[in-house]
Model the fold of this input.
Amino acid sequence: INNNTIKNAPSNGIYVNTKSSASSINSNTIKSAGKYGIDVEGAGATTISSNKISNSKSNGIFIFNGSNVKKTIKSNTIKSVGKYGIGVDTKAKVTTIEKNNISSPKASGIYVRNKSVVKNIKSNTISSPKKYGIGLDHATVNLIQSNKITKPSQNGINVYVSTAKKIYSNKISKGKKFGIGIYSCKHKPKLKKNSIKSCKKGKIEK
Done:
């Protein structure tokens, strides 16, 4: 599903539904969708890349309900969406979320929750999220690395009742709470070489 321009869709801009699959969802422009910009629900995809998504009423990209993105969600530009920039929810799987530019989402930039698994979240740029830059809630992520997060309204990276094995070399600045928050986790992540500047509550809470 490539090279389309979609404006003012009443629901989802692009929708891949139960038991179907899309090899690639690339280089689409989606403006002002009534729900999600791109929704993969109970389905499969290989790559979701180089899409431009703005002003969706809910998530920019939503991977949901057991869906599996086998390679990457990469190099997407997501602006001013109504909830998460990229949401991974309810037993969904993604190999890598990388090099996305997410600005001014009404909730978190990237959010992984409800028994979902992501191998790598790396080299994303997230600015002015109204909640977390990157949030995990009852989820598993192997590596969170080299992300740049500026002006989050809450913690830059927030890990709650989740497994995040490695949090390395992220740059977090000008947050209204902590740079990194680790809460109610059985296995504490390894934290290395993170740069945290000008976060009002402090660098790390755990």
